[in-house]
Fold this sequence. Notes:
The structure holds 2 protein chains of 2 kinds.
Chain A: H1 8-12, H2 19-27, H3 29-46, H4 57-72, H5 74-96, H6 125-155, H7 159-184, H8 189-210
Helix pairs in contact in A: 2-3, 6-8, 7-8
Chain B: H1 21-29, H2 33-55, H3 58-75, H4 85-106, H5 123-132, H6 137-148, H7 153-160, H8 164-186
Helix pairs in contact in B: 1-2, 2-3, 2-4, 3-4, 4-7, 5-8, 6-8, 7-8
Amino acid sequence: xxxxxxxLERALRTSELMPEAREHLKECPACRRxxxxxxxxxxxxxxxxxxxxxxxxxxxxxxxxxxEPKERxxxxxxxxxxxxxxxAIIAAVLIGRPWQWVVKTGxxxxxxxxxxxxxxxxxxxxxxxxxxxxxxxxxxxIEKLSRLAAPxxxxxxxPLTACYREKLLMLDAAISDTRSNLEHNRFNIRLQTxxxxxxxxxxxxxxxxxxxxxxx
Amino acid sequence: MxxxxxxxxxxxxxLPDNPTDAELIKSCRQGNLRAYERLYELHAPRMKSLAFxxxxxxxxxxxxxxxxxxxxxxxxxGFEGNSSLSTWIYRILINCxxxxxxxxxxxxxxPVEKDLRSDSSLPLKIALERALALLNERQRIVFLMFxxxxxxxxxxxxxxxxxxxxxxxxLFEAKRELKRLLMERSV
Lengths: 216, 187
């Protein structure tokens, strides 16, 4: 097929010109001019990149970022207070009366009395196994609820959903922190209790989210 | 979707010399301002240039880049890593530029005449800048990102949330239109 001037545009669509196009360019000054301009557009474009000093820009951004948390993180601050209060209550319960864990249901993490070692701060191997099995049950339940709640979380922009979303993110961060602490200290009762509380809170939050804010 | 969550801030000193995206995201999420500064150093020059060509003024470009970085800060907790960090940041910037343009339209402001640099004496460069202003929005954005700022088609496709082939096709249309405009001028 003979290459015509009208074929040049089609040829320019590919990154490298076909041999017929190259041959045609040798003979046709008009197409050669068009082709040269095509390439010059790309080279001239590189010179359009604009650089200038903006000494105040980063300081302004930083100033605004520093001003943000006070206005935008009340829940996080509340979360810290809540965590301290929860830790204080747990400590009071642990210190105030003998260790009693009652096995309720398969989905509640529980530590049977008989399985706790004589040292009140640490679990026995057997108790740890049971706690971890219950934790697994919690995680499965949470995963299931998360899947159900995902469309609502992603597609709804109501203020209530935004609050739930923030709370879930904070819970995830706290769960991740507690789990990473537990990696070094799996037998610690306090950490296991904190983790169980966090899972329970997340499960409850997801249930509330799915039932439209109704507490279960 | 932007999740607005404030993060506790601190000036943690430790940040690797060449942090990966994952390290930067982690440090930013921990409220490390040095990590945000690093993000700024990495991306601000290109973001400023792109915003300048979209908005036509240095002042508007700086304001828009500032707004984009604040949005990045507010939304980083919700960043899921479905695209690369830079793709995500540029997507936020483009949205901020559109917001600025919409604001201008609401206030019925005239588009700002581009303040051409004093050294832009090359005829083709000037003609190209003027011709660029005549392109439609999508052609101009793709041309600016690919030819001026050197982004790849895969990155542009991610930023504009279109297939890579579409990005290539819009670039071709842009260059074809620019060629036509520049040839008309020289005839």
